[in-house]
Amino acid sequence: MNATTTTAMPILRVEHLSMKFGGLVAIGDLSFDVRRGEITALIGPNGAGKTTVFNCITGFYKPTEGMIRFTGRAGDEFLLERMPDFQITAKAKVARTFQNIRLFSGMTVLENLLVAQHNKLMKASGYTLLGLFGIGGYPQAAAEAIEKARYWLEKADLTDRADDPAGDLPYGAQRRLEIARAMCTDPELLCLDEPAAGLNPKESLALNALLNDIKDNTGTSILLIEHDMSVVMEISDHVVVLEYGRKISDGTPEEVRTDPSVIAAYLGVDDEEVEEVLIEVGDEDVIEQLDTGPDTEHGPEASASMFAGPLSDTVVHGNGERVTVEKGAGKAGRARTEKPAAAKPAGTAARPVKASASTGRAKSGKASAAEKAEPPVTGDKSAEAKAKPAAARKEGISNRLSAPRGGKADNLQLVKGIGPVNEKKLNAHGIYHFDQIAAWKKADIAAAEAYLAFDGRIAREDWIGQAKALAKKAASVPATRRGGRK
């Protein structure tokens, strides 16, 4: 196999991978490629099976079925599902990090990077005491190991902390150190399990820079699991989306971002917002398919994940309760296959329909302000119950405005975590400017999170701090350019 052929081949090919734990199918018939020299992201909500895939690739689990084929730069092929985990690292050159940081906290930063090179140092010592006395090739190997450690200290922006205990580093620096330690093993494939978890926006930018540098300057391919969509969409060349162990989408970040099945199943919009998002991305065919609304019989509760249930027919809970779930009940499957129902169930208010001039098809229209303010009178008590908390929440945020100052609202999407849908929600709720968000107190945050159906996200993403910085920056711009206050 020549070098050209090797370069063109995927570095990793997962074929028909399945992993079962008793009667639970964690991964079901999963196939995807990791292309050489690219960053591939594996995304999906908690419970989708992402870490299980990593554990199969790196030898922690032996898959029930399927093949994991790794092709090295020299053309060597390895079937990872047949190899012990230590050989996957040593021979196939596959390195990984974990969700929880696993540094040697009592060792210095430099020592952590030297430990990662122990195989080479032990070989140079002849697996004897030669290294202790500096005999043979050990001094040269030790010097090379220190030079490599210094190189990755610089790349990870940790040179000034080289002699500090690793446990004393800030959280984001520990993440970068863990990646630098993995790179000291000279991997051809680097597997990162949620590297941006817990990072603030500044730390996420530093992580993005490090990963792009690894891809561009080392030739190492990267496979990462990540929940931070700003990281995924900015640095990934290829994205694979899982729903309960099944692949629901596979393509470029832009293709995945606008895939209706991903929008419905993963990105976290409410059921009633799916149509609004699809209108924004212009997919009218799927808008019609979704016009029937969600399958409430198999759909999740308000606090559940965005999926309906596992793949197995029957799930036995710890308390002995047995729950049967229909296969294909996930939202992604419904987004692809659901057809408009002939009639709505009794007691359910029909959604207004308007004709599309360009296609002649009917698609659902927007509810009027009166309809949004007054819930329909039906026999369904749950609808009435939902309406009361909504009215109470609307009174919660204290600094609402009736209109943007100066007739022009700030671009709230500059706050990390506020997308177009949530910006519209905030505007509809009288929040138009950065300084309004910056002035929120605890009660305002609680009311906003209830209104946006978030759970601790505003504090986690530091909306207040971001808004203060943006408001300060906007205040330094002349009023004629800024729009808003005069």
From TrEMBL:
<feature type="compositionally biased region" description="Basic and acidic residues">
    <location>
        <begin position="381"/>
        <end position="397"/>
    </location>
</feature>
<dbReference type="GO" id="GO:0005524">
    <property type="term" value="F:ATP binding"/>
</dbReference>
<dbReference type="InterPro" id="IPR003439">
    <property type="entry name" value="ABC_transporter-like_ATP-bd"/>
</dbReference>
<dbReference type="Pfam" id="PF12399">
    <property type="entry name" value="BCA_ABC_TP_C"/>
</dbReference>
<dbReference type="InterPro" id="IPR032823">
    <property type="entry name" value="BCA_ABC_TP_C"/>
</dbReference>
<comment type="similarity">
    <text>Belongs to the ABC transporter superfamily.</text>
</comment>
<keyword id="KW-0813">Transport</keyword>
<keyword id="KW-0067">ATP-binding</keyword>
<dbReference type="InterPro" id="IPR003593">
    <property type="entry name" value="AAA+_ATPase"/>
</dbReference>
<keyword id="KW-0029">Amino-acid transport</keyword>
<feature type="region of interest" description="Disordered">
    <location>
        <begin position="290"/>
        <end position="411"/>
    </location>
</feature>
<dbReference type="InterPro" id="IPR027417">
    <property type="entry name" value="P-loop_NTPase"/>
</dbReference>
<keyword id="KW-0547">Nucleotide-binding</keyword>
<dbReference type="Pfam" id="PF00005">
    <property type="entry name" value="ABC_tran"/>
</dbReference>
<feature type="compositionally biased region" description="Basic and acidic residues">
    <location>
        <begin position="319"/>
        <end position="341"/>
    </location>
</feature>
<feature type="domain" description="ABC transporter">
    <location>
        <begin position="12"/>
        <end position="269"/>
    </location>
</feature>
<feature type="compositionally biased region" description="Low complexity">
    <location>
        <begin position="342"/>
        <end position="368"/>
    </location>
</feature>
<protein>
    <submittedName>
        <fullName>Branched-chain amino acid transport system ATP-binding protein</fullName>
    </submittedName>
</protein>
<dbReference type="InterPro" id="IPR051120">
    <property type="entry name" value="ABC_AA/LPS_Transport"/>
</dbReference>
